[in-house]
Amino acid sequence: MPAREQLWSSARTRVLGAAALGAALLGLISVSCNSEDDADGVDASGGAAGASDRGGSNAGGEPLGSGGDGGPSGGSLGSTGGSGGTAPGEPAADYEPVYTASGLTFPTSIAVDSEWVYVGFGSGIYSAPKDGSGELELLQEGRVESVAVLGDLLLYTDLSELMSMPLGGGASTQFTQSTSGRVPADKIVVVGEDAFAARTFSPCGATFVESVYSLRPATHRGAPVVSAACLKEFTADETHVYFGVGSYGSVVGSISRVPHAGGEPEVIVEDVDVMYGMAIHDGEIFFGAGDGEGLMGSLYKAPITGGAAEAVQTLGIEGGAWSFDGRLVVNRGYVVSEWTGSTFEQLASAPPIVKDVAADGSHIYFVSGASPPLVGRAPF
Q: What sign has the CA pseudo-torsion 372, 158, 355, 210?
């Protein structure tokens, strides 16, 4: 996958939800799904650190140091009254658009709790009621790459530094290593009460070593579980951390696993260039492997105890896999589906360029790189 550009839109915007605007602004979103081969090619982030207090009313707040009277500026705001239809011969959208924003760019990640959705953009984290009944407002400025909910904390990465803040808003705290220094990360994985983080977009080479960290939220510390050169992707289950390294020099890419407490890594898949999307489901590891440039690839699966990898499905550039409470969700470019064990069951078709997926007990939620960006949901 192409390296993430460090871009930032400083526009102060408030994203209006469907319930807030109603039918008067229908049709501002137009979804296109010409083929799975279409590619945005950008997975970027940008912004500056700061904090705001949402409080009980989700009042949000403007970026620190931006001044002004708190009113939105920087462009018109879009509603989510409909999907805008499809061209002849294209599949109809079967998801509910919840929020859109013409003034925000570079969506990167999404997370949900019992009531709220949290979306990472190139300019910060925005939050809103999950059902679209309110407004998606700025919660925290930053060049956000990943967001995740752990208990009463919102974990996020800002310019590859791991941070946390209360779910209701408030001051942010930086994670540090058990000895000294920050915890470098651009991806967070939460499994039950455990959380892990790592930086996966560093260059490849023997001198570019990254670590997967086990997180201790109570003390805001991170302890290395495993370190590897050319770390490309990672995930975890209840007992192990799984990580993929790319090929460089005489080193051939592979996937290994190591217990949460650390130890000697065990290679489980050999001769593979892991590029994106890794999840554990039903005793197997699912991952996307590309053509060496990350431009196109396929979804593969292999036993978590080791064995040959089997191709399952062609993926687009933004493809990936996520595991939610024993269910596997796969993004295949313009179709988000659930893997049933032998085939895919469609959950949402035609959302453009899905960047990330989250889930609760009733719905999946996704953020897409449409123009303008889109937050949608579908029954799950």
A: positive
